[in-house]
Every structure is written in structure tokens, then in C-alpha cells.
Amino acid sequence: MLGWGINLHGQLGLGPAAVTSFIPTPQRIPFFNDHPCIQVACSLTHSLFLLADEYVYSAGNNEYSQLGREGRTSVPEKVILPQDEKVVQIACGQHFSICLTKNGKIVVWGSISGRVTNDDGLFYQKPEYLGGFVGKRIIQIAAGYTHVLGLTDDGTVYATGLNAHGQLGLGNTDDCVRANPIGCLRGSPIIFIACGAYHSLIISKSGTIFACGLNESGQLGLGDTDSRVWPTNIKALQQQKVTYGSCGE
Fold first, then answer.
1. Boundaries of each RCC1-like domain copy (predicted)?
2. Closest to 41 (Cα-Cα) out of 20, 72, 68
């Protein structure tokens, strides 16, 4: 495992001696010499690592409890999850972290809203199960700066978090503490989800791709710069059967 770039918070996991403004060339991360890693997720100032043993490790900024643990921040250390859950997917928001367990549950820690109090119900000082998914089995997760999407095994998308730009796809701009299903997609089983900073992409089984949220740079692909509060079909791709997507900021 190699790391390079900005490392002011130790997010590269290189250890305290390497905490500096910039690592200009790839450096081997010593921790992973003896700990095989199968998946990485990065935010602005923290990182998650999923090891071959199916446990999550974290490094970097912990101002918002986004590491999910105490201890050293510049070296990857294990995040203790509820019921010692094992993990299949990890994702980072701006100031929070999520993971998908083998049992189909979402665990969250840190601050989805960017606040270090729980006045809004979106601050998780330690790892806990994300509310709103009782009786649901999640098969994929995605995280934006301040929102979360979860895809269930029946093809339903659930959304939670901040929603100033309509990135939750719920038809409004109201923040959502507990995950709610995106109702307008009923009848269109979903197979893939992705999040940008403040927008979301959703792909149906038929290959149709929908977008919602912030669109000031045309990131929704809808031919304009108007934000959308509902998932909207990207008509420029309607002749294509899309199976995968990825979002930048």
C-alpha cells in the first residue's frame, strides 16, 4: 500500500514522523506490510481501510469523531464496531464514516452535518447502526459530503443527511435524520448508487441513470445548471444501458 499527497492530519497513515503538509512522491505505508488491505476510502482529511480480515481501520483527522476510535491518528488503527461486525464496503463523508456489514447493516460514526453536537441528530461520537433500516438488508452504500444513500436488496434507495440542494432525492430540501425511501423510484428497481459532494447518481436495472442535487457546474448532466430535488433521467444517456457511475465533487 502506497500513499502520497496532503498529509497534515496523518490521513495517509504513514506515522507521526511523516505528518507534514505534503508528501510529493508515493511512500510505502509500513502498517500494511503485515496487514493486507482490500479496499480504501478517502475524505478530505481522513481515510478508511478495509483489511482482508474484514475489519475497518482509520487514520487522519478526528475532530468530528470520524475515525470512530481514540488513540493515534497518523497510524491506521482498528475501529471497534457494534457486535464485532465484519465489513464488505466502506465510504467517507466530509466529516463522517460509514461501512456496510456482512449482515447488510450500515454503521456510521462522526458528524454527517459537520457539527460536533447532537442537536440535529446527525452526530455519532462512536460507531452505531444508522437508523431507518429496520428489517431492510442493504447491499450497497454511498456517501456525499453531508448525505448517505443505501441500496436494499429489493432495489429500493434510502437517503439521509443534509439536503440543502435536494441531494437526497426526496422532492424537497428538508434535512433527514432517519433514512427515508426515495418514493418516486418505486417501480424502477435500482442496481447502483453513487454520491458526489452534494449530488447523487442512481442507476436502474433497465440501465436508466438518474441524478439529483446540486448542479451549479452541470454535474447532473441534464443540459443546464439548475439543481434538482427529484431523481431526474439523464436524457443524453437514454440510448445507453448504464451499469456503473462515479461522482466528483
1. 2-248
2. 68
User: Rounded to two decimals, what is the model's pTM?
Assistant: 0.95
**Who contacts 158 (Cβ-Cβ below 8 Å, separation ≥6)?**
132, 133, 136, 149, 150, 151, 152, 179, 180, 181, 182
28 is written with which cell numbers?
Answer: 510505502
Can you tell me the distance from the alpha carbon of 78 to that of 68, in angstroms, rounded to the nearest whole number? 9
Paired residues of 92 in beta bridges:
97
- C-beta separation of 79 from 69 below 8 A: yes
d(CA 58, CA 55): 10
Cell of 129: 447502526
User: Which one-letter amino acid corresponds to residue 114?
Assistant: G
Provide mean pLDDT across the span 191-208: 97
DSSP 8-class letter at 16: G
How sure is the predictor about 117, in pLDDT bands with cuts at 50, 70 and 90? confident
Which set of grid coordinates corresponds to residue 136?
Answer: 431492510
Q: Is residue 85's pLDDT more than 90?
A: yes
Tell me the CA distances in angstroms from 244 to 108, 236, 241, 247, one per residue in order. 25, 16, 10, 11
**What is the residue extent of each domain of the chain?**
2-130
Q: How confident is the model at residue 83 (pLDDT cuts 50, 70, 90)?
A: very high
